[in-house]
Structure formats: C-alpha cells, structure tokens
C-alpha cells in the first residue's frame, strides 16, 4: 500500500486556540504512554540492527594457558600448553535465511513505528476532546448561573401574580423546582470540570492541572471542514492499518525462515593462533566448512513451516479486518460530523428566534403590556437556547476530533473552508 502524504501536527490548529496548541505540544513531549511506545521503538530498532548483522562474519580473540610441572624440562615455549589467537565464524545463511531474517526484523521495527504513531494520534484526540468538553462545561456553568438568576426573577414576578390572584401557586412551585434543578446542575458541572482538568493533566504526564484551564475560555470552533468524500483513500493514513500490513510482511518472512530450516546449513570457521595445538611452528592456521544436514527430526521442521503459513493466513485476515473496521469508523465519523454540524446550524437559528422574542418582551414590558415574569421567562428561554447551542458546538467539535482520529490523524487532501 503506497504512502499518503499527511501532516499529523495540523488538524487541531483549525480550532485556532493557543491553549489547545500548547496542551497538545506538552502531551507530545511528556505523555507517558507515548514515552513507553517510543522506548519500545528504540529497542526494536536495536534488535533490527542486530538481525541485519546476524549473518555477517564474526571475529574474536582469546587465549588459554595451563601451568604444569613436566617430568622433562622443556625450554621451548611453543611446546608448552599455551594457545592464543583469533577465531572466525561465518554463518552463510543460505536458501533465503539471511534475507528473510532481515525482512522480518524490518517489518517488526515498522510495526513499532506505527504503534508510536497510533499512540500519538489517540493521545492528541484525547487531549483535544477533553479540552473541548472542558470549555463547553465552563460555558454551561456561566449559563447555569445566569439561568438561576433569571428563574429567580421569574419566581419573584410570579409571586406578585399569585398574591394578586392572577396565577396559581402550582406554577410558582414549578419555577422553584426549575431553580433547584439549575442549582444542582451547577454542582454537577463543577465536578465534571474538575474531572476533565485532571484527565488533561494525566495526559500531560503530571498530576497538576495546567493553570490556563482554571479560567473559563471560549469554546473551540473549527472554521474548516475536512474534505473527505472518499474515506477509503484516507485509510492509508491509519497507523493500525499500516501496522497490520507490516505484520503480514513479517509473517511472510517468518515462512521463509522456517523453510530455510528444511535445507542444509553452511558455516565457515577458522582459527589463527600461536602455541598449542600448533606445536611445530610459532603460528598456525586451522579451519574449514561446517555443513549441517537435517536428516531425521520426526517432522518438526515441516510442522514449523505449516505453523508459520497458518500465522501468515491469520495476519492476512487481520489486515483485511483492520481495513474494514477502519472504513466503518471513518464513514461513521464522517456522517456524525455532518449531522452534528447541521444540528449546530439549527440551534443557532433557534437561538436567534428566542433572542427576537426576548427583545419583543422587553419592549412590551416597557409599554406595560407584559409583566416581569413574562420577561424573565423569555430571558430564561434565551439562556436555555444558548445552553443547547453550547452542547451542539461541543458535539460538533468532538465529532471533528473523532473524524480525524478515524482517518489516522490527518486528511490526505487539504481541508476546505466551511460556513460558520
């Protein structure tokens, strides 16, 4: 599968939020899960490097000396139990053993690299999602406080109507229940905000929330829409799909390694030394080929080949399954983003209608044609619509983050501007 040009450091910047940019940068540097994945990649690279040198000639030096008291004094040092020299060994790696070992190591390293990228994509989406939700909760907290105030004014206006006999106490009790409910929601929102701040701190590898998160801020809103008319093209950016592909290549190489075990194995060895066992000259050379020919193993090597072939079939099926799941997630996330954006537009229109009604009520109140309770009710309706718009914007932003996560963190094509 050919690579698709993409940028993993841009999608969240469409929100134009400096605090979010700072949090993502901190998480990329300090996230502990990402640090673990990077450490595994370093280990994998070291193992891959060692695998590439596995079938190269090796050279070692050594010496042996044994003290003894012979019956006959021998002044010739070369005839004493002494040996020192260099040993050479070379496993030739015939029948594709060397090549397949290198391919298997390279594929294993590529899997670890894809895992690092997968962790980075998921971590970025989690930071962005938690931040989006936190800002939405903070907006809801402000609206809840304003709603409590509006409902109290409505309750005061209703009390005057009840006193004059123009309203029943049941309606007043309903307003009181609404006030109590809004006050309870304030406590719940504060608890959720605290939990989200702590979640972001954990993603940043610390236990202390960032001070910028203690202050309320505007909701992140993207001014761009991803151009993803063909999600199947974007699957090439998914780290898990690429990892599954590399696992297929690794399994194929393992078949070649197992098949090489069915054939003879050649190793060249040699020694250059002084002393025993070279007793007739100061220096000596010894060496030659070592050939290992498999004859009888009761089918163990054939069983190993069949096992590797079965594991290859499993890897192919896993790759196909990962492609299908990735496509499903991408299509679903794309549909959810479109639906959430449409809902945001509808909530914005509803808010404008509520604001017009509230302005009319204020005008009527100034003319003496509407009481304070009706004005407070209209103001409460505006606040409720604003709360619904906050939730709709949160859902839209979260669905955008989910969409970018589903396509591997970046779109294969440039984003296009969308109406706000």
Automatic annotation (TrEMBL):
SUPFAM superfamilies the UniProt entry points to: Outer membrane efflux proteins (OEP) (SSF56954)
Residue ranges, compositional bias (Polar residues): 219-230
Top-rank taxon: Bacteria
Coiled coil: 170-199
InterPro entries reported in the protein's UniProt record: MdtP/NodT-like, OMP_efflux
Alphabetical keyword list: Coiled coil, Lipoprotein
Similarity section: Belongs to the outer membrane factor (OMF) (TC 1.B.17) family.
Protein name, as recorded: NodT family efflux transporter outer membrane factor (OMF) lipoprotein
Origin species: Ancylobacter vacuolatus
Organismal lineage: Bacteria, Pseudomonadati, Pseudomonadota, Alphaproteobacteria, Hyphomicrobiales
């Amino acid at each position: 599968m050919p690579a698709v040009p993409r940028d993993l450091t841009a999608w969240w910047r469409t929100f134009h939020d400096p605090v979010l940019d700072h949090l993502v940068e901190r998480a990329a540097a300090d996230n502990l899960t990402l640090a673990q994945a990077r450490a595994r990649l370093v280990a994998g690279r070291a193992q891959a490097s060692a695998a590439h040198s596995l079938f190269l000639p090796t050279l070692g030096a050594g010496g042996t000396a044994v003290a003894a008291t012979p019956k006959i004094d021998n002044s010739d040092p070369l005839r004493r139990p002494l040996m020192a020299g260099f040993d050479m060994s070379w496993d030739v790696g015939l029948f594709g053993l060397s090549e397949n070992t290198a391919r298997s190591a390279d594929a294993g390293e590529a899997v670890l690299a894809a895992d690092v990228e997968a962790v980075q994509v998921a971590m970025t989406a989690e930071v962005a999602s938690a931040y989006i939700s936190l800002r939405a909760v903070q907006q809801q907290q402000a609206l809840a406080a304003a709603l409590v105030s509006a409902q109290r004014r409505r309750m005061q206006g209703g009390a005057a109507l009840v006193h004059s006999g123009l309203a029943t106490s049941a309606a007043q009790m309903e307003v009181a229940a609404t006030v109590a409910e809004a006050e309870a929601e304030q406590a719940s929102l504060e608890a959720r905000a605290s939990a989200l701040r702590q979640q972001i701190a954990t993603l940043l590898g610390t236990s202390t929330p960032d001070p910028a998160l203690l202050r309320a801020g505007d909701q992140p809103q993207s001014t761009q829409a991803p151009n993803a008319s063909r999600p199947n093209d974007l699957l090439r950016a998914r780290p898990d799909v690429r990892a599954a592909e590399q696992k297929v290549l690794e399994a194929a190489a393992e078949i070649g390694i197992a098949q090489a075990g069915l054939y003879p194995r050649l190793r060249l060895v040699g020694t250059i030394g002084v002393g025993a066992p070279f007793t007739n000259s100061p220096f000596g050379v010894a060496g030659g080929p070592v050939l290992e020919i498999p004859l009888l193993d009761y089918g163990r090597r054939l069983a190993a080949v069949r096992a590797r072939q079965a594991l290859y079939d499993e890897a192919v099926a896993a790759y196909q399954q990962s492609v299908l799941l990735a496509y499903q997630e991408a299509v679903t996330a794309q549909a959810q983003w479109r639906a959430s954006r449409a809902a945001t537009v509808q909530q914005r229109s509803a808010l404008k209608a509520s604001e017009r009604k509230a302005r009319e009520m204020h005008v009527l109140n100034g003319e003496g044609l509407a009481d304070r309770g009706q004005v407070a009710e209209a103001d409460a309706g505006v606040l409720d619509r604003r709360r619904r718009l906050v939730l709709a914007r949160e859902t839209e932003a979260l669905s955008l983050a989910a969409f970018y996560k589903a396509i591997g963190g970046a779109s294969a094509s440039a984003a296009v501007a969308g109406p706000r």
